[in-house]
UniProtKB/TrEMBL annotation, chain A:
It holds the Pfam family Tom37. One of its GO terms (cellular component) is SAM complex. This is Metaxin-2. The keyword Membrane applies. PANTHER family: METAXIN RELATED (PTHR12289), METAXIN-2 (PTHR12289:SF38). It is found in: Mitochondrion outer membrane. One of its GO terms (biological process) is protein transport. Keywords: Membrane, Mitochondrion, Mitochondrion outer membrane, Protein transport, Transport. Belongs to the metaxin family. SUPFAM superfamilies: GST C-terminal domain-like. Residues 39-159 form the Mitochondrial outer membrane transport complex Sam37/metaxin N-terminal domain. Residues 185-247 form the Metaxin glutathione S-transferase domain. It comes from Dreissena polymorpha (Zebra mussel). It comes from the Eukaryota.
From TrEMBL, chain B:
It comes from Dreissena polymorpha. It is found in: Mitochondrion outer membrane. Gene3D superfamilies: membrane protein fhac, membrane protein fhac: a member of the omp85/tpsb transporter family. Belongs to the SAM50/omp85 family. This is Bacterial surface antigen (D15) domain-containing protein. The lineage of its organism: Eukaryota, Metazoa, Spiralia, Lophotrochozoa, Mollusca.
Length: 259, 449
């Protein structure tokens, strides 16, 4: 704990170095969509903060990550992985998106972030690993894509077991697919209602919640899978669709043009 | 005078007896239960070629040795007698082996010492499963540095010949490599063939291993972290050993030559070619002293457009190799983690003498030797190594990066394989980044140079 504190203290001296790198798996062939959603959330957050970074694709990004999950950022001598720790770390560097919020709004923001962590993230894992069609046709092939036989069979199976364990711990493993769809629907409804016709969840400026929602919802909407139930659900919420388009236009169009 | 004559006669008798024309008429083996006849028949055949009595005795012993090497008998006794019975020839002899077969299941454990770490191996062995010296072994290793492992191996002599063995093994092993800041879990399988040639012992092995590397902590260097993850190695390994030393721990004469070639490139994503050599020569001097010269070196080059993973690289340094440095403390380091080199070499000049004033001479004192030594070596990376690069400048750069240490100490023999060294060492040539350990250094292990 003390080490961490000292590290953060030391790191805070230089605001944002030039060579910040974000590590994830290869986007076109390898990354599975729950990981892609997580990575897109972090990237969106960093874009929203106006922070420069480069994305480094690595076959072994997951094994390199200190927490065993992607994405992680390498900034100076520090490594920080996953959305919430990255947001917290970026804040210690003096960048944040929620400075203007009231305390009530801040706790509301936290609640919505929790909601996404406990529903959308689990639903993504469920869809990609526990729905047989998706697992067999997409997830297995992608997760093992960069490895030779027999690792391309062993590694997806190992991951399958660990996801199963993770979902069992949060009591999602025994849900039926219909129940999972229901959860997604409830979550989308809640987000849609909170958003209303505002530009962002908390008014005119984006917060980390906007980045997180964008990362997950747009991944679910745009990923082509054998089962499209989640995408069909999302399409019913107009506020969310408008929101996705707005963020895409604001933060990603410029990037696309720069290529 | 009389006595002397008697001795003379007796001597003559032995001489005549030994050179007396004789042949083996029958070979009898008693005590066989589950061993198949054919494997015994193959191994006793040389006896039938004996031409005189001395020859019979010599060959009978050689056959006994071979039977022993099969590892299926706990006891072998030889009896030689003149052949009796209806068809008995005057010069015919019976050779009888009284053997006792090993039990169906043997349990064992032994301690192993690597370089300053120890482990305990428990095993179950079943020798002679199908009657032709097939052995099945199940082992479990538990050691310091989180070393854990278990394996299942099978071996069998080919054609009943104890000089040629076929083996197969499947295993799972894990261990920490704190000097490099990573831990590794291996799952592997291999097939191997051991055989003799005019040059020495050979072992040819195919090995397929899935290696999973992870950082030990958040303090591990990023250079190590980049190499974390899964890799698959499928390699052919040839090991050649020629050992004429009289002892493995404190030899007084003879040489050891060991060469290993590994070609990792038949499938998998660890692609490299590795070649290592170790040489040791011993020469006895007056006053029970022995001078020893050791030379070792190795090079590993990536095949195709790859890099060589940290787990396949060479490391150098330690209390039993290049003394005066910490374990694997020589060569490229990053944030205190040894990254290993793709080439290494080292040499050592040792003088072993009895302890001063020879306490416990002829007994306990023989386990100890005083030890004076000079060690030198180098470990690093050769970018794009090729022969035309061996020029004066490169040679100079190599010389300038050489490490050298010298010192003295005491060596204690631990059994027939391991030794303990307590030395006072001065590392005199060092390089930036090396992890040196001047002063008193203690080392225990079975591999030493």
């Amino acid at each position: 704990m003390l080490m961490e504190a000292v590290k953060i203290e030391m790191g805070a001296t230089e605001r944002w170095p030039d060579n910040v790198k974000l590590y994830q798996q290869y986007q076109a062939e390898q990354i599975t969509f729950p990981d892609y959603a997580a990575s897109l959330s972090v990237k969106t957050f960093l874009y929203m903060c106006g922070l420069e970074f480069s994305t480094v694709p690595k076959i072994n990004a997951e094994e390199m990550s200190p927490s065993g999950r992607v994405p992680f950022i390498h900034i100076g001598p520090f490594l920080v992985s996953e959305f919430e720790p990255i947001v917290a770390y970026v804040q210690t560097r003096g960048f944040g998106l929620n400075d203007d919020l009231t305390d009530v709004q801040k706790s509301e923001l936290k609640a919505y972030i929790k909601l996404i962590g406990s529903t959308l993230v689990n639903a993504e894992l469920y869809l990609s690993w526990l729905v047989p069609e998706v697992y067999e046709k997409v997830t297995k092939a992608r997760y093992g894509a960069m490895y030779a036989w027999p690792l391309n069979c062993i590694l997806p199976y190992q991951k399958f077991l660990s996801v199963q364990k993770q979902l069992a711990a949060s009591e999602w493993k025994n849900k039926t697919f219909a129940e999972v769809c229901e959860e997604v629907e409830t979550c989308c409804q809640a987000l849609n209602d909170r958003l209303g016709t505002q530009n962002f969840f908390f008014g005119k400026k984006p917060t980390e919640l906007d980045a997180l929602v964008f990362g997950h919802i747009s991944t679910l909407l745009t990923t082509d899978l054998p089962r499209n139930e989640f995408a069909d659900i999302i399409r019913r919420y107009d506020n969310l669709l408008v929101f996705l388009k707005r963020i895409d236009a604001e933060y990603f169009d410029a990037l696309r043009n720069s290529y | 005078m009389n006595g002397n004559e008697e001795v003379q006669t007796l001597h003559l008798d032995w001489e005549t007896l030994y050179s007396k024309p004789a042949f083996v008429q029958r070979v009898l083996v008693s005590g066989l239960k589950r061993t198949k006849d054919d494997i015994i028949t193959k191994n006793v055949k040389p006896l039938l070629q004996a031409e005189n009595f001395g020859d019979i005795v010599k060959k009978a012993e050689a056959v006994s040795d071979r039977l022993q090497q099969l590892g299926i008998f706990s006891r072998i006794k030889i009896e030689i007698d003149t052949c009796k019975g209806a068809n008995a020839n005057d010069n015919g002899y019976d050779v009888r082996y009284v053997v006792q077969e090993s039990g169906r299941l043997k349990m064992g454990y032994y301690t192993m010492v690597g370089q300053n770490d120890g482990s305990l191996e428990f095993n179950f062995r079943s020798p002679n499963v199908l009657g032709r010296a097939e052995e099945v072994k199940l082992d479990y290793i538990y050691g310091t540095k989180h070393t854990r492992g278990f394996g299942l191996s099978l071996k069998k002599p080919l054609n009943g010949n104890p000089d040629t063995w076929f083996g197969a093994r499947a295993y799972r092993e894990q261990g920490d490599y704190p000097w490099s800041g990573y831990k590794e879990t291996d799952h592997g399988a291999g097939l191997d063939l051991s055989f003799l040639s005019l040059l020495g012992n050979h072992n040819l092995r195919w090995e397929g291993v899935w290696r999973d590397l992870r950082c030990l902590s958040n303090l591990s260097s990023f250079r190590v972290r980049e190499q974390a993850g899964h890799s698959l190695k499928s390699s052919l390994i040839h090991t050649y050993v020629r050992d004429t030393r009289d002892d493995m721990v404190l030899p007084t004469r003879g040489t050891l030559l060991k060469m290993t070639q590994e070609y990792a490139g038949i499938g998998g994503n660890a692609n490299f070619f590795k070649h290592g050599v170790e040489f040791q020569a011993n020469q006895a001097l007056p006053l029970s002293s022995v001078v020893q010269v050791c030379l070792a070196g190795g090079i590993v080059r990536p095949l195709r457009d790859t890099t060589v993973n940290i787990t396949d690289r060479y490391f150098l340094g330690g209390p039993l190799t290049l003394r005066g440095f910490n374990k694997n403390g020589i060569g490229p380091h990053s944030d205190g983690n040894a990254l290993g080199g793709d080439v290494y070499c080292m040499g050592g000049l040792h003088l072993y003498t009895p302890l001063p004033f020879r306490p416990g001479s002829g007994g306990f004192g023989e386990l100890f030797r005083s030890h004076f030594f000079v060690n030198a070596g180098n470990c690093g990376n050769v970018e794009n190594f090729s022969l035309d690069q061996v020029n004066k400048e490169n040679w100079k750069a190599f010389q300038n990066s050489l490490r050298l240490s010298y010192g003295l100490g005491v060596v204690l023999r631990l059994g027939s394989l391991a030794r303990l060294e307590l030395n006072y060492v001065l590392p005199v040539w060092k390089q930036a980044g090396d992890s040196a350990s001047p002063g008193v250094q203690l080392g225990v292990g079975i591999s030493f140079l």
